[in-house]
Amino acid sequence: SGQTCEGGRPEATMASRSPAARDEHVAAASGDDGGEEATRRRPRGWRAIAFVIGLSLHLHLSVYAAASMASNAFVTPLTSYLIDRYNMKPNAATNANNIFSGALNFSPVVGAFVADAFWGRFRTMLFGIVLGIIAMAVITLSATVHQLKPPSCSALDRQAGTCVGPSGLHRAVLYAGMALLVAAAGGTNPTGLPFGADQFDASSERHKGGLARYYNVYYAIAMLATFLALTVVAYVQVKVSWGLGFAIPTALFLAAFAVFLAGAAAGVYVLVPPEGSIFSSVARVVVASCRKRRLPLPHAGDLRLQEEALYNDPSGQRRSVFKLRLTPQLSFLNKAAIVTDAAAEIRLDGKPARPWRLCSVQQVEEVKCLVKIVPVWVSGVMWFTLMTEMTNYTFLQASTMDLHIGKRFTFPPISIIAVFYLAVALFVPVYDLLVSGIARRLAANKARGGDAGGNGVTLLQRQGAGLVVGALGFVVAAVVERRRRRSALDDGGATSPLSAFLLAPQLAVMGASGALNMVGQVEFYNTQFPDQMVTLANAAFYCAQGISSYLATLVVNIVNARTRRRRGGSDAGWVSDDINAGRLDYFYYAMAVLGAANFVYFLVCSRFYRYKGEQAGDSVADPDDEPEPARDSASTGGSEAALLKT
C-alpha cells in the first residue's frame, strides 16, 4: 500500500521527452521553437543519429562547462571578494552573499515557469546565456575600472577599520551585475539538463543508454568546471588581479556560446515547444477536489471501474506526455475527476467546460506525483545544508593552517574546497563502472537463480548511501579538527603549523557522498516528475540548494545559542568567529548526528515511495507493462553509452 505514481513502462521515464513520441523541432538559425509546424527528422541510420546527438551534446555541454566556470568564479569567492576588494565588513559581506545565493538558487523556479508556459527550453536557455555573458562583463568591469570600485586598502588599515567603503555608484554597478547573474541562472539552470535530455530518443536502446550516462557526465563536467574555478581562476584572482580572474572565464564563456550558436545554425538540436505551465493545472486539481469533497468516489472497491467512471480527456494524451494511470493513494484528489453533470461540465468536443470544476485523471495523477516527491526532496535539502556547513567551515579551518605547496608556492584558502568537487567528478565514473557494475552482476545472478527482484542499484538506494557516507565525512572532519585545534593552541593560539591538505580527507569523503546523493537527486527528479514537469524538476533541485543556504545559518545560530548557555553565557559557542576559541569538532559531531537522523527519515520516506511506472497490487495495470523500480543511471549497459563518445 505504498505510494505510487504509475504510468506504464519505466523505460519511458528515463527520458524527459522521447522524440519518437513527440514532434521533433529542428533548430533553425532563428532559434524558433514554437512557431512553424514541426518537421520530423527522418531516420538516417545509427551512425547519423549518433553524430547528430553526439554533436549537439558536445556543443551544449561545452557552453554549460564555460557558464559553470564563469558563474563559480564569482559566486564561490564572493564573500572574500567583497571584503578584500570592496572593503565591506565581514558581517555585511556575509549577509550580501547569503541574499545573493538564495536569489540565485530560487530564480530557476521563475525560469521553469517561463520555459514551460511561454518560451520553451531552448529560448529560455539562450536568454539566460546572453544575460550571463552581460553579467560577467559588468562584474569584470567593476573589478577593473578604478572609478567603479573603492580604493585599495592595506592590511594595517583594514585592522584599524579605516578602509574607505564602497560608494553608491560602486554598489549600483556591482549589484547590477549580481542581479543580471541571478536572472541568467533563472534561464540556464532549470533548462540546461532537460535540453540535453531532449536530444535522446527513449524508444531506442542506444539512445536510452546514452541518456542514462548523460546525467553523470553533466554533473561531472560541472564539478570539473568548479574545480578549475577554485584552483586556477582563484589563484589568478588572489595573486594577480580580480579583474583578470573574472575576464578569463568570461572570455571562455563567450567563445563557447559562439560554438553553441553555430550548432543551432547547423540545425543539430531537437527543440521541444512549450506545453503550458503546470502550476495552473495543480491549482485546478486542488480547487476541484475541494469543491467535490462531499461526493463519494464511484466504485471505491474497484480501481479499474473507478478510472472508467472518472473524467478522461477523450482527445488523447499529448504525444510528449507519458500517460499516468489512476492510483489509490491520495484518493481525495480523485474527486476532482468526478463527473456530476456531463451536459454542463463537458463540451461537445470532450473538453471540460469548467476546468476549475472538472479535471482529468492525468491532471490528478500529475499532482500526486508532486506531492509524493516532496518528502524525498526535504531529505535532499538537509543533505545540501550539511554540505554547506562542511565547505564553509573547512574554508575557515584552511585559513588558519599552512597553505604552502613546497617552500615558495602558497594557494588561496578557498582552493581547498576544490577537493570536494574533484572528488565528485572522480567518484562518479568509479561508481558508474565499478560499484554499479558489481550490483548489476549480483542482480543478474539473483535473476538466474529464480529471484526476479534483482534490478541493481535503484535511485533511492544511491541517495541513501550518499547520506550514510556524508555522515561519516563529518566524523572524519571532527577528528581532523581536534588535531588542528590542539596544534594551533600549542603553537600560540593563532594558526596551526599543520598543512591545509590535512583537510582533504573530509572533503573527499563528502565528495563521494555528493557523487551518490547529489547526482542521484537530480536523476531522481528528472525521472520521477511527470514528463512535462522536467524543467520544474531541475528548479526543485536548485531550490533545495537555496533553502539550504538559509538553513545552514539557522543551524549555526541554534547551536551557538545552546552551547553559549551551557558554557556559562560566554560569547564563544561551539562555532565561534575564532574557531580556536570554539569547539568546531563538537559541531562536526553534531552534524554527523543530524546526518544520521536525516538518513532515518529518508528510510521512512523510501519505504512508502513507489517508483513511477512501478505497478501496485491494487492499481490498474496494462497487461503489456513490465514494471520495475527506476534504476540508477549507471545500471544501464556500458556499451550503450557510445553516443557520448562521438
UniProtKB/TrEMBL annotation:
Keywords: Membrane, Transmembrane, Transmembrane helix. It is a multi-pass membrane protein. It is found in: Membrane. Gene3D superfamilies: MFS general substrate transporter like domains. InterPro entries: MFS_trans_sf, POT_fam. It comes from the Eukaryota. Its main location: membrane. GO terms for molecular function: transmembrane transporter activity. One of its GO terms (cellular component) is membrane. SUPFAM superfamilies: MFS general substrate transporter (SSF103473). Residues 1-40, 616-646 are annotated as: Disordered. The chain crosses the membrane at residues 48-67, 99-119, 126-145, 174-196, 217-238, 244-272, 409-431, 463-480, 500-519, 539-559, 586-604. It holds the Pfam family PTR2. Coiled coil: none annotated. Belongs to the major facilitator superfamily. Proton-dependent oligopeptide transporter (POT/PTR) (TC 2.A.17) family. This is Major facilitator superfamily (MFS) profile domain-containing protein. It comes from Eragrostis curvula. The lineage of its organism: Eukaryota, Viridiplantae, Streptophyta, Embryophyta, Tracheophyta.
